[in-house]
Amino acid sequence: MPARTDPPDDEPADEPHYHGHRERLRERFYSAGPDALSDYELLEMALFPALPRRDTKPLAKSLLKAFGSFAEVVHAPEARLREIKGIKDASIHQLKLIAAAATRIARGEMRERRQLSSWNDVIDYCRSSMAFADKEQFRLLFLDKRNQLIADEVQQTGTVDHTPVYPREVIKRALELSATALILVHNHPTTRYQVTFNHAQAA
């Protein structure tokens, strides 16, 4: 007698009970806009390409319960994502693609704007790119005399609770770029994704 074979993880054995749900969700997304959808519904849609034959609602709700928000889900470390039942490579790749796109957009908006007009702009930008990193980073924002952004660079990446800083390298790079001001940024993964800022002005 042949051995019993189970259906693949992404293919339910019976007719899916969520038939038509994806289409209704897409229609609401396009007709009412993304603000009409909750975090778990947006996460459901984000997981559609990774899980084309599975109901993504339970997984979306499990992820939000574990991490708290859409942003925290997509920026969560891969090791922690793998702790969630139902998460496999395809889903992780999809979430990390969204995180990378969000970071790229944030950087593009900041560079297009160039002028760092307020601390809120800087905070929003840095949080989108590094607040959910699982290792400490030491990041430098180089500014000219009008507080326009010259460059944004990650100088060092450390462990979960430590990253080295070399003042000589910071000053060398500032001179290379003719920067007149610096914003020094580092994150604290062990303290709920905290980001710390310091500002230095050239004499």
Structure in a nutshell:
It is built from 8 helices and 4 strands; from the N terminus they run αααααααββαββ.
Key features of this structure:
single chain; about 200 residues; alpha+beta; DNA polymerase, domain 1; Cytidine Deaminase, domain 2; 8 helices; 4 strands
Write the layout of secondary structure elements.
Layout: H1 21-32, H2 39-47, H3 57-67, H4 70-75, H5 78-81, H6 89-113, H7 119-130, E1 137-143, E2 149-157, H8 167-176, E3 181-188, E4 194-201
Antiparallel strand pairs: 1-2, 1-3, 3-4
Please give the count of helices.
Answer: 8
Low-confidence runs of at least 5 consecutive residues: 1-9, 11-15
Domain unit count? 2
Strand order in space, largest sheet: 2-1-3-4
What series of H and E elements makes up the topology? HHHHHHHEEHEE
**Main sheet specs:** 4 strands, antiparallel
Rounded mean pLDDT score? 78
The CATH C-level name of the largest domain is: Alpha Beta
Written account of the structure:
With 203 residues, the chain is of the alpha+beta class. The chain folds into 2 domains: 80 residues, Orthogonal Bundle (DNA polymerase, domain 1); 81 residues, Cytidine Deaminase, domain 2 (3-Layer(aba) Sandwich), CATH 3.40.140. 44% of the residues lie in helices and 16% in strands. It contains 8 helices and 4 strands. The chain has a 4-stranded antiparallel β-sheet, covered by helices on one side. A hairpin with a 5-residue loop joins β3 and β4. The chain is elongated and about 60 Å long. The relative contact order is 0.09. The N terminus is likely disordered.
